[in-house]
Design brief:
The protein is of the alpha+beta class. It has nine helices and 17 strands. Helix content is 28%, strand content 24%. The strands form four sheets. Strands 2-3-7-8-11-14-15-16 form an eight-stranded antiparallel β-sheet. Strands 1-9-10-17 form a four-stranded antiparallel β-sheet.
């Protein structure tokens, strides 16, 4: 459940199709993005590239940004042709728009909304994309013992982070009984989804952006692009390398960074992998010094409290996205064990600011400064 905005900046000295967009300020009630004066969580740092004669086929980087899925989406490709690059980028944006139209928690006509409307009544026929997305979500729920639960919508709708509203305990206790991924029935042959209890609500926000990034990269490859990057807020999928042969460079935000000077706590190279970070500073408000954020524990309905941020690296962005949420709920000790068991890499900043790494992650990441 991560409706959020990160400023994702692609830095290059050549052929940028659209100028960088300033940080957004979106507000409003449910269905609109709430921005809480936070700097970017994950910055895609492209090292300045000097084009030279030895670059194959005069490849350059081309980039466009749009607002989709309630956030900024940036697609970057490496190509020897501007026309080919723009055609591929536009096709990737169209794919992301398609996933958004199918999975939007708030849009009445989306397939997710139709599933929710028919909860406890009848099964809903869905597209191959929604069937695949929900299949992945349920798989993550099994692997994390329910720490990630796509039926969390019955609880998330009780919070309003823009208006600083948290649910009454009675409402929370009533709705938490409707959160159980085991009550989602999937008929793959009929391509239908059924929620067993009336009042259950699927909220795909914790996996949809990562899934859309995966699908967009697939479209880019079909268009003949062999290197590029799709960044949907903090969910990033990279493939191939930059024109200079170096991997993409990713910056991980300090979860308590107060300004741009101390915003990035670590960097790492990324190629043919995906990365996602979940943090308690993305959407939150304070009440009597208590931080109420959007990363809710499916067992209690309250914000999880063991971490400040979790970064996960894996080959599929859908899994990076959903596991980052799950590990945040599990906490650092159990989270590292779950990541190791799955063969994923991760960096966890716990509630005291201490860093925890999987073995492989410790070797990849370069720490710029410790978390204070």
């Amino acid at each position: 459940m991560k409706y959020r905005y990160y400023g994702v900046h692609m830095c290059s000295d050549i052929d940028v199709s659209t100028p960088p967009q300033p940080p957004l300020k979106l507000g409003g009630g449910k269905g609109e993005l709430c921005v809480f004066n936070c700097w970017l969580l994950v910055t895609v740092c492209c090292l300045l590239f000097t084009f030279c004669a030895c670059a194959p086929h005069n490849d350059k980087m081309f980039k466009k940004s749009r607002i989709l899925m309630d956030t900024q989406v940036t697609v970057t490709v490496v190509s020897g042709s501007r026309d080919s690059a723009e055609k591929a980028i536009d096709a990737a944006f169209s794919e992301i728009e398609k996933i958004e139209s199918l999975t939007n928690f708030y849009a009445k006509g989306s397939e997710i909304s139709l599933i929710n409307k028919n909860a406890g009544i009848s099964a809903t026929k869905v597209s191959p994309e929604v069937l695949e997305l929900l299949g992945k979500a349920l798989s993550v729920s099994e692997m994390t013992d329910g720490a990630f639960d796509i039926t969390i919508g019955a609880v998330t709708r009780l919070y309003d982070f823009h208006k600083k509203i948290k649910p009454e305990e009675s409402s929370l206790l009533k709705n938490i009984s409707l959160v159980n991924y085991r009550d989602v029935s999937v008929d793959r042959l009929a391509s239908t989804i059924f929620l067993n209890k009336k009042g259950m609500i699927i909220d795909a926000g914790g996996i949809a952006k990562g899934y859309a990034a995966d699908k967009a990269v697939g479209v880019l490859k079909k268009q003949g692009i062999t290197s590029g990057l799709v960044a949907i807020a903090g969910d990033i999928k990279a493939f191939g390398r930059k024109p200079d042969g170096k991997p993409w460079q990713i910056g991980i935000r300090n979860p308590r960074g107060m300004d741009q000077d101390d915003d990035i706590m670590a960097t790492l190279p990324l190629s043919d992998m995906a990365i996602s970070t979940s943090g308690d500073y993305e959407r939150f408000f304070l009440v009597s010094g208590v931080r109420y954020h959007h990363l809710l524990d499916p067992n209690t309905g309250f914000p999880a409290s063991g971490c400040r941020s979790v970064t996960v690296i894996v080959n599929a962005a859908a899994f990076a996205d959903s596991f980052a949420t799950a590990v945040f709920v599990l906490g650092p000790e159990r989270g590292v064990k779950v990541l190791d068991a799955a063969g994923f890499e991760g960096l966890i900043v716990d509630s005291e600011g201490k860093m925890h790494f999987t073995a492989g992650m410790r070797e990849k990441v370069a720490i710029k400064k410790p978390v204070s």
